[in-house]
Design brief:
Layout lengths: L10 H6 L1 E2 L6 E2 L20 H11 L4 H5 L5 H6 L5 H15 L2 H8 L6 H36 L12
Antiparallel strand pairs: 1-2
Length: 162
């Protein structure tokens, strides 16, 4: 009896084996290339240059870590005000951009990510940024109120002379 090409794998095969999209040969879940037909298997591969640019420009907020599917980008968000995540992400940007493609694919070639988790992190990041903006606005209003008490002339509009 021949095996059916579209037969689903048994439950014991799922954990330790996946199959090539082109030749249906067995692979390990971290293989980037099929050993039988040579087809690339990077269905969820992350772009090295994009990750490096995100780390360079938005790394202080941990955006590059969220892009790579790593939950611990939350720590970048929590400590962005210290400046430490910016320094760390600058170093990571250099590392990402200088890494060769084979090493990159071995580490980030088959990244699994959850869209629900990304939505949660987006909402969390928006709340943190909104909280920061509201605190800055409250400080600004308090400063202007204090200045107006010191100098009542600031309340009077300027008169134009023609």
């Amino acid at each position: 009896m021949h095996a059916q090409p579209y037969q689903p794998p048994t439950s014991s095969d799922v954990a330790e084996c996946v199959y090539c999209r082109y030749c249906a040969g067995p692979l390990t879940p971290v293989d980037n290339q099929c050993p039988q037909c040579g087809a690339k298997q990077n269905l969820n591969a992350k772009n090295r240059v994009l990750a490096g640019l995100l780390a360079l420009f938005l790394g202080g907020l941990g955006i590059h870590r969220f892009y790579l599917g790593q939950w611990w980008g939350v720590f970048y968000l929590l400590f962005y005000w210290t400046g430490i995540p910016s320094i760390a992400s600058f170093i990571e940007a250099i590392m990402f951009l200088c890494r060769d493609q084979a090493t990159w694919l071995a580490e980030y070639g088959n990244v699994k990510h959850s869209s629900l988790f990304n939505v949660f992190l987006g909402v969390l990041m928006s709340l943190i940024l909104a909280t920061t903006a509201l605190a800055a606005y409250a400080t600004y209003v308090a400063y202007i109120t204090y200045q107006q008490r010191l100098d009542p002339l600031l309340l009077q509009p300027l008169e134009r002379t023609y």
